[in-house]
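A student in our group prepared the protein record below, which I am reviewing. Here is the record exactly as it was handed to me.
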Amino acid sequence: MKLRSLHICLALLALVPAMLPAAERTVAAAEPGSVAFAGSSAVSTTLLEARDPPPASTAEAATGGEHYWLRPGNGVRLAFDLDSLPAGLSAAQMRRCVLRVVASEVRYVREHEAVAAVVELAVRRVGETRPLAALRDLRPDRPVSLNPDNGRLCEAVAEAAAAPARRLELELYTATAKASSLLHGRAPAEDTIRHASSAPRLVIQYAPDAVAAAAATGWHQPQHDAGHSGRGDSNPAHGPSGFELQALPLPAVGEDAGPGVLAERPLLWRDQVIAVLKRGKRNFLVVLDGMGALLWSSEIGGGVVQRAPVIGPQGLLYLVTEDAVRAWDLEARGALRHRFVLPELAPQMPVRLAPFTKPTVGEDGSLYLVLGDGVDGVLGLDARLRPFLFFGLHEDAGTITPGSPALSIDGRYVAVPNGEGAVLVDLHDPAAAERLAFGDGAAVSGWRHHLPVAGMRAGEWIFSGYDAEDGTGTVWAFAGRAPRWQASGGTSTQPVLAPDGRVCFVQDGTLNVRGFGPGDAGRRFGDGLCASSNPVMDGAGNLFFWCSGTLHGFAPDGRALFAGQRFADGPEENLALALGADGSLWTANANGGELFVFRPRFSPPPAPPAARHQRR
């Protein structure tokens, strides 16, 4: 099936010099199947939309807000609000800065003028003459190649972000004689999704400050992070010897202090438990401490909650209802900050998310949704819920249900499993997408995808899923474009990524642990195991999962931490687990009226032989 893109994409690229240690730099794969280490620290990609600056005599190139007319002596000014970048971000922290523009017409003829296509395009800061980056040999018959400079664009971003206004104004200009091109500007109001990828964007890829990254700790979305590693922040000295179960009733909400039920799974954020409750047609946001005591609650309107909410690093909780996506501020007791109205297929019939898919929030607060109902594409919204990306997944709309999105370890690619493979969309250039083929045992109609998992090296991915009708399942591992291995058999669990980069999942009664090496058969542990929850892992590599009333725990070396622990009065059979910073496991029954928390019990570790000898 052919992938479709949106127009010809032109980009101005500025690469940062290699100032970071080799072990922490992201390098593109040199050939299919090769990968490069991306480091353990997260890398964020922020996409900023161009704002229309005040008109100026040299910059009135727009033929309207939806297009910009570029010609010699008549440049195009673009202004970018840098408020969403972390405070104090330096050029040394920036890995890559890209100014992305899309040509509506590479050769624009107006009033029967004889013009040529723009073959030389450059960008500079407004009021300066030195170019920050340049493109040459711009042709109408193919996308242009990127022409890097020495990092001046990132330096300009850092300088503008440090100024009080936090605003960067750039000018696109050309010296090509008798040339004219028409560039896309703002997306038209009647079709913001289809043209979302065409608006001028400033793409900034950076390594966030460690303190800022630590402030966003918690299980803030399904499988914890944008790459869905399933590995939390808790890092005990040794694994627990068991757990104690505690049931916490939900607090009363509303003016009449009435009971509510959970609309979706709880989230963990900064040592707090975040949940959305419903009472009749009203929804409430409740925030509890680690012991289940109510800190505050707020009514957040009505509507049917479509998916589990997610929380961005700025403290915004994104909630999808049947008509819109809304952002509620956890730092301001649930104040509504932003809203994106879902487009309508017909009057009062908004498009819905594809079945069984979940939203994914990036390290920079960007939100990714997979739309269904014949729209069938991945939609990217920035932290303020403004569309910046749309990519159609396949031509035969509605034939195969896609899966949820995930972001690569370097924050540059969005992966969406779709039928017989997966689509990788480049956020720096959405027209440059590729498909990975699953091969044997490929998913068919009716297949349900687990969340994709991004490996610890650029280009590494784990895709998995199962057929709910016949109970079969498959896990696929990729490194670059090359499939490394696949595990086919019975229904598999959601995979988890261990601290050493290996992949863990339960299938055919055993715990499977495999690396990314070609044909890696891995190792298997346990016997007669089952799992009716997602496995979760702490920072030390201890793995936990639930199976119909029994909790299992395994150490990083594959030994059982404790015999399967049975809970007679525990939660229901199928659960979604989340790992707290103290090692507690949080969960809830669907539409339940209480939360369940498994609190770890730690026994003193056995003394080493030398210590035992000394005590004698």
